[in-house]
Amino acid sequence: MSGILHIAGLGPGDDALVTPEVTEALAQATDVIGYIPYVARVAPRDGLTLHPTDNRVELDRATHALQLAQAGARVVVVSSGDPGVFAMASAVFEAVERDPAFESVDIRVLPGITAMLAAAARLGAPLGHDFCAINLSDNLKPWTMVEHRLRMAARADFAMAFYNPRSKSRPHQFAEALEILRAECGPDRLITFARAVTTPEEAFNTVTLGEAAPEMADMRTVVIVGNSATRRVGRYVYTPRSAV
Question: Which strand ranges, in their side-by-side order, compose the sheet holding 159-163?
Fold first, then answer.
């Protein structure tokens, strides 16, 4: 008899932001599968097997989870934030598409609070009008596509949230992204670097694009760029709901 496969978001870092639905799924699980630091957030207990894996094996991880669920296990695949935002939900459904035998598995996606929304809440309301989210990593898409999407989003005057802005393996690309944004938006647009949101290492830095430097971001940073109407109100940053 087939089990259940939950794909769960653990939120941005603080356990208080894990939803009760996810907490219940973890309490009922026989197996938890995910990237090493995310599985480390799940407390060991009797009857639970933890399966931490490297970040570059998402399809293998998804296939393993489907196989366990198909065999009757109660499996939870964990991601940080929300599992549908640059995370494991898409990988699981890609694995199902590759092998239709998995279509019988009962898959349930459990939403979580993604870092973009947690950071925006700390800041005020920088995503209060139309916005988009872009993953700046070129691991799964060419950098030319990232550049194109940056330009089009800026020209459409979206507020923007950027995931995976700068890593040790590609430190130069975020500098290029900032140059594109300065060219399209001008030097006065507000940009916030939100690092390790909701953890003890949490830090925020709001500057203008003219003041922004690549070194202000790393892989634990979510970057939020306002639209042309985004502004400061005291210590907060907000984007009006009315059309610009």
Answer: 131-135, 159-163, 221-225, 190-195, 203-208
Under 8 Å between Cβ of 134 and 146: yes
Query: CA–CA separation, 137 vs 158, rounded Å?
Result: 20
**What's the pTM?**
0.91
User: Which stretch of DSSP H or E encloses residue 179?
Assistant: helix 171-185
Higher pLDDT, 226 or 170: 226
- Average pLDDT score over the chain: 94
Determine what percent of the chain is predicted with pLDDT higher than 70. 98
The mean per-residue pLDDT over the stretch 56-83 comes to 95
3-state SS, residue 162: strand
Half-sphere exposure of 230 (CA within 13 A, CB side): 32
- Angstrom distance (rounded) from CA 106 to CA 210: 50
